[in-house]
Design goal:
This protein is mainly α. Helices cover 50% and strands 9% of the residues. The chain has a two-stranded antiparallel ribbon with strand order 1-2.
């Protein structure tokens, strides 16, 4: 089971790196500033280079990271409940 713990730790470290990259990218985008208009998932995905090139599931990786960061309070979701949400950084 040691391999499982090592794999789990490695995966969590990779997720943390991806979140950090997403946040750093958003910090460089004026629309994603705390008072900005926000950007949609696809625009953020393009800026981060996270597109996986999947025909029907592209964007899910970036969306999952955005949802996780929103639950952690680092990202604000604009237009909640609507299909075309926008995201920006929180002022914390």
């Amino acid at each position: 089971m040691a391999w499982y713990s090592a794999a789990m730790a490695g995966g969590q470290a990779l997720i943390a790196d991806c979140k950090r990259h997403l946040l750093e990218t958003m910090q460089a985008l004026p629309e994603c500033a705390p008072e900005g208009q926000g950007l949609g998932n696809k625009a953020i995905e393009d800026a981060t280079g996270f597109a996986l090139g999947l025909e029907r599931a592209d964007g899910w990786f970036t969306w999952s990271l955005l949802v996780a960061l929103a639950s952690e309070g680092a990202v604000e979701v604009l237009q909640p409940g609507k299909r075309n949400k926008k995201y920006r950084l929180t002022s914390r």
